[in-house]
Amino acid sequence: CQPTCAEPNRTVACSMFICARGCECNKGYVRMTEQDEDNPCIEITQCPGQIINK
């Protein structure tokens, strides 16, 4: 739902989740993965082993 290292340009919102204040990454940051809702926001340039298409 949020942009991740695997899909940094994702813009589709998830209808199954209700976002509370603070649950989204700041501009220039993405979730490391979607596997865990507690995974951190990291700078897009810090994505491990990913090719980033800007």
Structure in words:
The protein is mostly loops and about 55 residues long. The chain has one domain (about 1-54). It contains no helices and two strands. The chain has strands at about 30, 40-45. A two-stranded antiparallel sheet has the order 1-2. The model has no long low-confidence stretch (mean pLDDT about 75).
Please state the structural category. little secondary structure
Spatially, the strands of the biggest sheet line up as 1-2
Summarize the main sheet: 2 strands, antiparallel
Helix fraction by DSSP (H/I, runs of at least 4): under 10%
Number of domains: 1
Can you give the mean pLDDT? 73
Distance between termini? 18 Å
Number of strands: 2
Helix tally equals 0
Strand content: 5-15%
* Low-confidence segments: none
Order of helices and strands: EE
Shape: globular
Radius of gyration: 11 Å
Give the gist of this structure:
This is TIL domain-containing protein. The protein is mostly loops. Helices cover 0% and strands 11% of the residues.
Structural descriptors:
Ser_inhib-like_sf, 54 residues, 0% helix, TIL domain-containing protein, globular
How are the secondary structure elements laid out?
Blueprint (H helix, E strand, L loop, with lengths): L28 E3 L9 E3 L11
Antiparallel strand pairs: 1-2
